Amino acid sequence: MPTTKDLNNSDDLLIERFRKENDLEVLGQLYHKYMHLVYGVCLKYLKNREESQDAVMQIFEILIKEIPKHEINVFKNWLYGVSKNYCLMKLRKQTSEKAKQHAYADHFFMENAPNVHLLDKEAPVDLTKALKTCIDKLKETQKQSVALFYFEHKCYREIAAELAIEEKKVKSHIQNGKRNLKACIEQIEKKPHE
Amino acid sequence: MSDSKFTYRHLKNYLNDVLSNKERNALEKKALQDPFDADALEGLETLSAQELDTDMVFLKQALTNRTKKTRRSFPIFKIAASILLVVGLGSLLYTINTSKNAHQKLTKIEDSKENSDYVFIDPRDTHFDTLPPQIDSTQIVVQDQNFDIDYSVKEENISITPHKTPKSVLETKNKKAASNKIKSSDIIKDEEITIKAITKKNIDTIQVSGIVTDSNGTPLPGAEIKIIGTNITTTTDFDGKFTLISPKKASLAINYIGFKKTAIRAEDQIAIILHEDISELEEVQIIGYSATKRAEQTGVISSIKSEKIQQSKAIVIEETLSEKVAGVQVEASPQQDSETMQAASIPPNGSIDAFKTWVYKQLDPSIFKANKSYSINTSFTVNTKGGISNIKILTKLDRSIKKEFKKALLSSPNWKPAYKNAEAIEEEVRLVFKIN
């Protein structure tokens, strides 16, 4: 199975080739890998199939212009930033006629690196004491959802069935639980002698 | 840590429910870590498996069209042909000139590529103020290479055909136009929209003409051709033919209800064959009976679910539907008509106004601020028994007001449900309440 590193390499290779040769086919190859993700993001924000399809093609045009201009670390993250910001700008344009915006401010092209939570690290076998205490402190539903998801590797659907709640609720319990755990752990790390 | 979990194939499997629970868990975990994946998953989940498949096929087509290289086969023929053409034209013009002077039609304007005045614009995204009526490229203001977008534009649909010269199609609103090197008097007219030239130098456009047919070769009139990424569309005429000005390598989307949406590359002459898509027909569900704009409608309307209808920008709903769905006859009537196929639901008090008055009476006046007028857009479903459910308040308001409204609507006695072909059906109703 290709690792993230391998994928990064191939992305980087494609980007280099594109920078050198300015060959649209190369860029198309790269974009092809992530097009479904870009489409998904556009659907989420624009909520319209036709507009989202347009957006996917527009974003490709933006890539043609902007890739040569910026230093890109991890393409996927950078692409996310560009896509999301494009959608948000489109939304802003739709709601406020008078908004005059400069096309793409610098910060739009910074990368959005994903956060890695303690729980998300592969095989959290070595649970720290802090984590254990914190999990205990969670509310019942959050505790159960988190435990089932991370320790028993159950999917949303299973958890929803087991706890008799909606899948959406399961998701939010897990996300809130993660957040509370993070805060709790940080607290404990500040006062280690507690 | 593997990135293969979010390939399109894997995502499709997740959405189609082919994965095991463990695999689902793994994908969901991955989504929690990467906001890109999470957002994408959220968006894609809103589509059905078939829709997603269709859309991805379409997008892949469009991308391929956009990036494929044109075959350079024997440019010598093209060169020879263009030389011949120029010579031929030259002699033709010369002979015409010597006989009659005022005969220069110059319909060749569209063909001569050095004039890039048919610059490609999207009225929503660009700010256009440099389109000279004469072909004088020195007057075109070309800015630097940066892709400038001005969002101060009113959304309007422009269909550009070669017969309309720049003067009549593109009109400017802005005083900015005056500050340009062009004679603004040539351009400015009464109604105004503002568009600005895309500033990429050397943007080539071509005139695309073509015909759209089905797989049997029957021409399809009323098919929509759209330049992807813009709001610029045209429709095929009675013979299925169309013409359009488009940037050279753009992708065009061809749409016709009942057929699969296709993408094709812009070229001088194209013949498009559309393939049927059975699933599309199901989208047209409800027939409206009144020709008013949605925003102005304060009475009951049935919602029209087909995306096609919303997009065709036809204000007269009847025409759109008769055109796009074979076999549907729609009659415009301001009230229910037992001869047409459908009747809308009736509120308990007999009329919409009476119902509204009743609702107003149920509300606690203290929740509204004094001296403030409200326009509250609501939608709810009248089910087959006449009960009200799925109440949504579409306007942004305080929670207390929303709650009060929902309560009032919920407590409404039963309506008479909507009917279609003598059978009761569910109907979505939208009402706007005005309070001051």
Structural class of the secondary elements of chain A?
Answer: mainly alpha
Sheet with the most strands, sense and barrel status of chain A: none
Number of continuous helical runs of chain B = 11
User: Strands of the largest sheet of chain B, in order across it?
Assistant: 3-2-5-6
* Rg from alpha-carbon coordinates of chain A: 21 Å
Radius of gyration of chain B: 28 Å
Shape of chain A: elongated
Instruction: Let me know the average pLDDT of chain A.
Output: 82
Distance, first to last CA of chain A: 44 Å
Tell me the number of strands of chain A: 0
The string of secondary-structure elements of chain B, in order, is HHHHHHHEEEEEEEHHEHEEHEEE
Q: How confident is the prediction overall: mean pLDDT of chain B?
A: 71
Shape of chain B: extended
Largest interchain contact: A-B, 69 and 58 residues
Instruction: Determine the strand fraction of chain B and express it as a percent band.
Output: 15-25%
Cα end-to-end separation of chain B: 59 Å
Low-confidence stretches of chain A: 98-104
Low-confidence stretches of chain B: 106-123, 125-201, 280-285, 308-320, 332-340
Compressed to H and E, one letter per element, the order of chain A equals: HHHHHHHH
Task: Outline the structure in words.
The complex is a heterodimer of chains A (194) and B (436). Chain A is built from 8 helices and no strands. Chain A has helices spanning 4-21, 24-46, 49-66, 75-95, 129-137, 140-150, 156-163, 167-190. Chain A is elongated and about 55 Å long. Chain B is of the alpha+beta class and 436 residues long. Chain B contains 11 helices and 13 strands. In chain B, helix 2 crosses helix 3 (35-44). Chain B starts with 7 loop residues before the first helix and ends with a strand. Chains A and B meet through helix 2, helix 3, helix 4, helix 7 and helix 8 of A and helix 2, helix 3 and helix 4 of B.
